[in-house]
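@channel sequence for tomorrow's demo:
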Amino acid sequence: MHGLWDTPDLFNTLKRSLAGRRGSPFSPHLPHGLGVVPLAELATRLNQAIEAEFGPDQILDVMGFSMGGLISRTWIQLQGGYQRVRRFTSVASPQQGTLAAQVWPRWPLASVADMKLGSDLLRQLNGDPGPLAAIDCCSIYCVADVMVVPGWTAVLPVGRRLAFPLHLAHHELMARPEAVDLVASELLRP
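structure tokens (generated this afternoon):
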């Protein structure tokens, strides 16, 4: 799942890296109106896209980048996605919020406001992380990320954590070969 101001094209490098080693990744486009659409509504749209592509029962591995990780987590925890997710990989996603969102008002930027430290959505997600317990979760993050600030807030409350050792700009985690290799190796892990 892509993030704010992104499209599925963000994953082209990752798709090339996975080619021939795993089935073709499904990466729906969820327009968010430049941050106007709340994350819960985007999670509902994600559910609709998943059901249209895979039906209601297929077990899935889910990966979300940046805001896409929070959209995915909202779907998993609050909309029943946990019942069909085997693995959830969160990449550079403000799972605990980000200082970069603090100054933005709820109206008109609801999805950005959902990423504030201590937002209602994050309190709800962190208040009951139980649905994540049966899922193989991994957080991949960069300590010096300039969008998810501080970098350690890009971690889920459960699962493994992989800190990327280089100082990369936010989108480089989906573009730089060494970062894409780390994400691909996590997605290919048995």
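heads up for whoever presents: The first strand starts at residue 60 and ends at 65.
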